[in-house]
Each structure stands twice: as C-alpha cells, then as structure tokens.
# Entry
Amino acid sequence: MKTSLSLDRVLVLGAVAALLAVAPTVALAQGGPDASMTFFITSAGPGNGADLGGLEGADAHCQALAEAVGAGDHTWRAYLSAQAGGDAAAVNARDRIGDGPWHNYAGVRIATDPDDLHSENANLTKETILTETGSMVNGRGDDPNMHDILTGSTLDGMAFADGEDHTCDNWTSSGEGSAQVGHHDRQGGGANPTSWNAAHGSRGCGQSDLQGTGGNGFFYCFAADGMPGDALDASLAEAEVFDHLRGRL
# Structure
C-alpha cells in the first residue's frame, strides 16, 4: 500500500523540523548569547543623540555591550559610515565589519558576507535583528516606536559623497545636522521605507530629535573578526544541510 509521502521525504521533513525547532532555543538553553553571535543591535545608545564620540566611541559602545553579555572576545565594530572632510577620507560602514558570516543572539544567520548583507537575501527582520541581550527592539506600531537605526550609509553600505551631512558631523554632534537611518522592522516612511540601513534622514542630531522621528540612538554592531573556528565550521555545515534538504523537498 502506497503512502502519500515517501519514507525518504518524511525523514527529510523531520530533519528540517528538528533543526528549525532547535536553532532559536540554543541561546535560551545556554542562558546567554549563542557562541556564534557576531551581530546585534544595541539595546541602548550612549544617550547623547547621534553624538557617539565618533566612530571610536561607537565601537567602544559596541564592545562594552558585548562584554556585558560574555561576548567580548570579538573585535566589535559599529555599522556606521563617516564622510570625507578636511584631510580625513570617507569610511564605509560595509568595510568596517569584516567578512562574515554573521549570526544573531540566537545563532540565526543574518548574512554570509558583505555582498549578501546588502542584498535581498539578507535575513534581516524585526524578529532576527536582536539586541545583545536577545530582545526585540520596538518597531512601527509599538509604543514607543524605535525603528530608526543610525547608519549614515547608502543602500550598499557606503558613505555619502554629496556634500550634505548624513552622519551628524561624523557622529560628534547632538545639535543641528542629520543622520541617515534605516528601519530594522523594514517598514515606515522615507525614500526607502523597507531598507534596514538607508530609509531616510533624521530631523536633527539630538536625542529628542531622534526620538521624534521614531528612533532612540540605536545602531548595529558586527564582530569584525568573524566567528570562532568551531562555530564557523558548524555554521557552514548547517548551511550545507539546509541547502541539501531544500533541494530534496
């Protein structure tokens, strides 16, 4: 007697279900971030609007938040661009964060490399863009809305070169100016409302300015030195398994 599903197909579906069931709970079982965590959104900003103390201050903030949850062994970098000015060359956010792959608090892969990160394939949603403590950040429809995330970057992760201020004076101003922000929940207003890194500019650089347009001075942090060897091997093996199983269904 034939069944509607072959045994082979049942086994494949079971394997997929098991993997999907286990992955989101790894971090909870460990009581902290998954060992592969190499990406997070800040749970808090420094509190002075877009004045982050420059790129150095923003990097230090990422590092401190990571260290507080036991992930300080990595070299953490803020996903922020800086514009050229005086003798200083432009700095592109995508060039600061290493080669990937990157995983969130729960061990879920966000992107494999910078090109993947800046493509439609990136796994960047409100549900996957978690803080260093594993929490989701409020988005559109929540009270308060905090979906405007500081980046100072174009859609492909580059610094602006149009002569306008998109970085609140390279992250040193909490007064006049503007900062390019993305929407971590992939919805809202602006020229690119579904963009995680380049939705629109802020109305100003102060904390109240950022909050007034749906932000709170948060930004993205990436481990520029990538994943530990064992975790990287596990990540690549996981990707191969999912690709194989997807092809068998």
